[in-house]
TrEMBL record:
Gene Ontology BP annotations: methylation
Gene3D superfamilies listed in its UniProt record: Vaccinia Virus protein VP39
Source species, domain of life: Bacteria
GO MF entries: S-adenosylmethionine-dependent methyltransferase activity
Sequence intervals crossing the membrane: none
All residue ranges annotated as the Methyltransferase type domain in the record: 38-132
Stored Pfam families: Methyltransf_11
Protein keywords: Methyltransferase, Transferase
Organism the protein comes from: Nocardia neocaledoniensis
Listed InterPro entries: Methyltransf_11 (IPR013216), SAM-dependent_MTases_sf (IPR029063), Thiol_S-MT (IPR052356)
Protein name as catalogued: Methyltransferase family protein
Amino acid sequence: MGFYTDRILPHLTDKVCGVAANDTLRRRACAGLHGAVVEVGFGSGNNVGFYPAEVERVSGVEPADVAWKIGAKRIAASTVPIERAGLDGQSLPFGDGTFDTALSTFTLCTIPDVAAALAEIRRVLKPGGTLHFVEHGLAPDASVRTWQHRLNPIQKRIAGGCHLDRDIPALISGAGFETVELDRFYLAGAPKAFGALSLGVAR
Ligand SMILES: C[S@@+](CC[C@H](N)C(=O)[O-])C[C@H]1O[C@@H](n2cnc3c(N)ncnc32)[C@H](O)[C@@H]1O
């Protein structure tokens, strides 16, 4: 993929996504996770400290070797067993109905074929299993959306394929999930084009 994407970007992502301002979002997204969890786009493990006690094990799916290495200390210190179980959310190496719950934070913006990834997450969840998410995406306001469409080509280049203008709730429901909880809001302190968030649970 290239030196920038493979070696530099995982460090930037670790810092940018790992800011303390995101802690509340991660805590909220992780609430209710339990049993066997698949975390798609595990990154450098920024969610590790937020898994509830009811989580038994986490199967992390992450293509970037460097991100996994950055997260090594967090993973080693975790009370929850974590393994790198896959490399690509678009093709999960698990049988149908393997997991109780799934987690995605700031990742559905980046996976190239996001519909395929959501279909895979749905496939590997047990019946009634839930996807917990916090994602940025298409803003509710037309003026913000205009800027998101304009900035999208630049964002994709500098942020490893990250899209600003994906309609995350629509993609999740389009994959056959039923939305159980959904909170849509702008992240305080961030430009609206980058901080239009969807946080929720889908079954
Ligand atoms: C913006 S980072 C978010 C990382 C982490 N979830 C967090 O909240 O800090 C997006 C992550 O998605 C990963 N990613 C990109 N393509 C992917 C794919 N096809 N399957 C799974 N993860 C992918 C990237 O390597 C990166 O770690």
